[in-house]
């Protein structure tokens, strides 16, 4: 690994912005100071020219589709897109083909990532109604979390047996991450609209089919079970204002046993966008009302919501162009998540310090990731340089996802990721990728 000196950067870290230099040695932040001189002639010097230096973003929820769904995406293609968006570490979900519900299949994914990933990586282990024995084999120091689908699952991953669910919550020390939507409510709503429209249901009804009630019923039940059993629970992709009453900002994140995430699309889009975007913004849980979107943003700022993620879940454009019941839910987001949040900064909706807290610091704290998420001496040197005033427009020529499309296509962002460093190595610069793979498996301080 190269030794690197980044000079004249506006460093955003732990609630402060200060101008200084950062020296990286053997992939580690070695020194952070107002001024640092090169230690030897072979040091690579980057003049940040006043750009903002952020810790590498940690995305706690992505679907990179490998193995089994590689016509949509691969770990290689999507981790490459991630570093273009300043995401240097990701945690990937278990609903691949085959599903990651055995230790054997989990290790196979780690092997793929070790060979192909541009960004640091971990994977969640998937729970089912009948794999508790496998769950108990998972080493909490080596695996990010246990993922349970309490709605909207693929394959046999819907965990809908109450006795099994309570046994899992009671038996594991793993952080439990959950997708919460009540399946029976959704089935009933779908049947109602299908009776009227057939398969071609207008997509504007998606947030009514996958309703506020479906989300709240499932989230509240999961939280009640976590409180009963003492399990550590993380609720993915909140989408409604009503669910916010289930969470607290009265205690520090390190002490919370029940935490929450919001995704970029639920902060950016609303039900007013379905007419223009159609199934391109069909996600589960659904993008809901302007009121819900505004409430989520307010809760994020007030620390009821702890982290921002993407739920990056690409499908081909041909798949998304199907009628409502046949168009899959999900979309690609890793390349555009940080630029979207920086757009909110330009709109005076959020500070740079808060963006870094929610996208870098808090995922590291919440998942107890070892020595990442901060620009601190002794930590792994994952870092992103951002030019806060470098407008660019998302188009097919600069979209890096394998699926080749983005819900942000045509959007002009005011800020741009110019450099991405993974473990001290420059892997991306101004729309150019370097074929450098110094990604590492994430480890956890548990």
What does this 3D model show about the protein?
The chain is of the alpha/beta class and 446 residues long. It has two domains: 4-53 and 377-391 and 410-433, Urease, subunit C, domain 1, CATH 2.30.40.10; 57-367, Metal-dependent hydrolases (TIM Barrel). The chain is built from 13 helices and 19 strands. It has helices spanning 75-84, 103-116, 132-135, 162-171, 183-197, 206-209, 212-229, 264-268, 274-277, 290-301, 317-320, 337-346, 352-367; strands spanning 4-13, 16-25, 28-33, 44-47, 52-55, 57-62, 87-92, 120-126, 145-149, 176-179, 233-235, 258-263, 307-309, 383-387, 392-393, 412-413, 416-422, 425-429, 432-433. The strands form three sheets. Strands 1, 2, 3, 4, 5, 14, 17, 18 and 19 form a nine-stranded mixed β-sheet that branches. Strand 9, helix 4 and strand 10 (176-179) form a beta-alpha-beta unit. The model has no long low-confidence stretch (mean pLDDT 96).
Provide a concise account of the structure shown.
The chain has 13 helices and 19 strands. The chain has helices at residues 75-84, 103-116, 132-135, 162-171, 183-197, 206-209, 212-229, 264-268, 274-277, 290-301, 317-320, 337-346, 352-367; strands spanning 4-13, 16-25, 28-33, 44-47, 52-55, 57-62, 87-92, 120-126, 145-149, 176-179, 233-235, 258-263, 307-309, 383-387, 392-393, 412-413, 416-422, 425-429, 432-433. It is globular, with a radius of gyration of 21 Å.
| Discrete helix count | 13
CATH architecture of the largest domain: Alpha-Beta Barrel
Shape: globular
Low-pLDDT residue spans: none
In round numbers, the mean pLDDT is 96
CATH topology of the largest domain: TIM Barrel
Give me the CATH superfamily of the largest domain. Metal-dependent hydrolases
Total individual domains: 2
